Amino acid sequence: MIITNNLTKKYGDQIALDQLTLKVGEGEIYCLLGANGAGKSTTINLLLGFTEPTSGNASINQLDVHKNPKATKQLLAYIPENLMLYPSLTAVENLDYFSGISGKKLSTPILKDFLEEAGLQSEAFDKRISAFSKGMRQKVGIAIALAKDAKVLLLDEPTSGLDPKASNEFGQLLQKLRDKGVATLMATHDLFRAKEIGTHVGIMKDGRLKQEFIVDNITLNELEMFYLDTMTYKEETL
Amino acid sequence: MISKTFIKETKELFREGRVRISLFIVLLLLGVAVWISAKQYQNINEQYAMAKTAEREVWDNQGEKNPHSAAHYGTYAFKPKYPLSLVDQGVDKYAGTSIFLEAHKRNEAQFSAAADQTGLARFGDLTPDFILLFIIPLLIILLGYNSFTKESEMGTLTLLKSQGISSFSWMMGKWSALFFPIFVKTAVLFLIAGIVLNNLNDFGVFNWTSLGVMFLVYIGYYIIFINIVLLISSLVKKSGISLVLSLCVWILACLAAPKAASNIAESKHPYPTRQEFAANVLKDKKEGLDGHDPWSKESKLLEKKVLQEYGVDSLHQLPFNFSAYRMQKGEEHEAEVYFKHYNYLKEQYANQSKVYRNLAAISPYLPTRFLSMAIASTDYDTHWDFADAAETYRIATQKFLNDNTAQNTRYGERGYKASANFWQQLPAFAYEPPELDTVLHRNSSNMMVLGIWLFASFGLMFFTTKII
């Protein structure tokens, strides 16, 4: 479970994130929508402990992220927009290393099972990552999360640049993880994907969470309308 | 986590083309260098054995001859090539291989290998110590300069951090992955050198312990370089900057510091020129007894003293030949003069060495170089030892010859010739270099400086794990 309370991050006078309060429960996929600079990535960086909050706090499974950095990192998995792995290592070797450094000792057949579960074709298991497409790398990222038995998944625009088929496959994988009880926070620009796989949607602008919806209570058209309204509001006030 | 990072890094290193090529080139160079050095070592020792035997035969077969004529005819003390010079040739090339031993005069070692070469010798030789001291540190830089920077450049750093990687384990994994190929390569070189030397039983006594200690010295040197390279890679953001900084350290440590140390040492504690040295020796010689001059004030004083001591009125009444006795006393005075002036040179050398040791604080190359040469018995200390042993032998030889004349002739008697078999009674010159314990004791300060470098570089590297 992810909880943030009045989470704020300032860089000098500039407010990157302003009093964000949200909750992502087990088996929920919370999609953060917003333009570039809205504060989505800052939120994820704060949850990863990569940066210190100016005020407020964030917790994962009741553990404060900044007071328990090691323990919270054991609980989460992170997939950035462009998941970069070691190009000279194979998919299995990459998975072995990344699960190994998080303390998991897994045999090769089990690692291959995770890759298969993540939707990677078996012919690619022993191929070097340098030959992988972005979609294939994202699948290895999901396999890392599976191997780690992550309780929380943080995604920073993971479907950006993926073709529709790969994007759809990725969405299905997230739904699988949701069914396993994983709490997912995904920063994205993709309204369609957010509506399709998300359980909750939040619209951010200028570091603030402007609106929140339960996906089942809103149509795609309504979501698009609210999103555009939120985005254009600033232009009108200017 | 350390072993996971070690395995990952090792796989990455060996799958990269530049690493395979560089490892192959270094191994090839090492093989060629060991082969060339082994050939040279064998040739020189064969020449040494031949020259030593031939010179002794000449000495033993002089026939009937006046002992003082034989003293002026002289003989040679040859410096052997020691087994570990195959790994580190040290100053051997410049120090001379033989000393001419004659009456009244202490000569310097001559016939250095460098003197036999053309100006092209300035380019240096491909020797194992060149590869060990210069090329392998470069290889460490090539293998390790992007150890950490590549993680942020490839974009894997954020994923690693999100996995909760421990900085210490990460650093140790990378450290061991860099250390492993260097350790294996160095171990292979020393093993090959050991096997080659062990099979050249005819020349010198090869000591595996000395080779092992030398191996440890080099491993310490490489660990320092590994620590520095990883430290730089962990502190900067770009691989290019890391490479340039690491190369700057290499240039400073391996090229600039030794030359600067040499210049500073020479300017602070200069050696006298050859002319100055010769003039000073001559001046002091003239102030004492000349064994060839019976009319000098010093000769007359000696004459008076000996007559008083033996209670006789005439030199003819002495139980030995006073001329030979005076000759020996003259030799002893000259030996003292040489001792004084060579001692001054040694003091200057010791002072220069102290400057080098002080400057070792800016370069781990300096203590490593000195330790390596000392263990190989190719340093100046060993050369001084050899020169001193040759001088002791020269003095003993002169006494042996003068005593023979003194005991077998009377004052005023001319034309004395020692028998043809007399020459064989002079023991042959034999010199053994200092034992390993003595060498290490002499170089304790170099070992201490190398130890400080090791601890300091480890300390700094581990300190940076807190800020990665």
UniProtKB/TrEMBL annotation, chain A:
Domain ABC transporter: 2-231
Record's keyword annotation contains Nucleotide-binding: yes
Pfam families from the UniProt entry: ABC_tran
UniProt cross-references to InterPro entries, sorted A to Z: AAA+_ATPase, ABC_transporter-like_ATP-bd, ABC_transporter-like_CS, ABC_Transporter_VariousFunc, P-loop_NTPase
GO MF annotation, one: ATP binding
UniProt KW Nucleotide-binding keyword: yes
Annotated CDD domains: ABC_DR_subfamily_A
Entry keyword set: ATP-binding, Nucleotide-binding, Transport
PANTHER family: ABC TRANSPORTER ATP-BINDING PROTEIN ALBC-RELATED (PTHR42939:SF1)
Name under which the protein is recorded: Putative ABC transporter ATP-binding protein
Organism name: Croceitalea dokdonensis DOKDO 023
Lineage start: Bacteria, Pseudomonadati, Bacteroidota, Flavobacteriia, Flavobacteriales
UniProtKB/TrEMBL annotation, chain B:
Matches recorded under InterPro entries: DUF3526
Protein name: DUF3526 domain-containing protein
Taxonomic placement: Bacteria, Pseudomonadati, Bacteroidota, Flavobacteriia, Flavobacteriales
A UniProt-annotated Pfam family: DUF3526
UniProt source species: Croceitalea dokdonensis DOKDO 023
Keywords tagged on the record: Membrane, Transmembrane, Transmembrane helix
Chain segments annotated as transmembrane: 21-38, 130-148, 175-196, 208-232, 447-465
